[in-house]
Amino acid sequence: MTPLPTILVADDTATNLELVDSILGSDYEILVATHGQEAIELALAELPDLILMDVVMPGMDGYEACRHLKADDCTSHIPVLFLTALAEMDALVKGFEAGGVDFVTKPFRPEELQARVRTHLALKQARDREAALRKELEASLAEIKQLSGLLPICATCKKIRDEQGGWNPLEVYISEHSEADFTHGICPDCSKTMLAEARRARNS
Fold first, then answer.
1. What pTM, to 2 d.p., does this model score?
2. Domain range holding 197?
3. Residue 81 bridge partners (DSSP)
């Protein structure tokens, strides 16, 4: 069974926490923090898929908590949506400058909260897939690079000189530097040569 996406809700008002849980709790796993520092610690420990962050909280406010999260490589990728009753333009700008991706205004409208959460979770999942594909591509390119460029090869025995200066049979070198496996056979030209040598040995 696929686990539910995890949402961290940081708000110092119990009523708001209960309301968010009633709107989102059936579709997501809800984690709760009541101040900025607790939100940071919980985010680092649980790595939620999305954070709903109240702006006005005791001690560290939501803006500062968001800046801390965005400055940490472990949590910088987690989208933060601010929960606020403030609708002034300077509050919105401050939130985006802190690293937030969106705002949800209080009092909450269930349809709006659900839609914004769905949208930003979908965007995060798309970014995560892109990052995973990029990592796979980089790993593949690294493997290809190992066999690119000039390879020092003996003109007589066909051994290849490795990075440490040792000489290895061709199949050993390729096996160690790629995912190729070898099966052995005899090509038509070598088969003809071997038959000719066998005939000469019988006639001698």
1. 0.68
2. 160-203
3. 52, 102
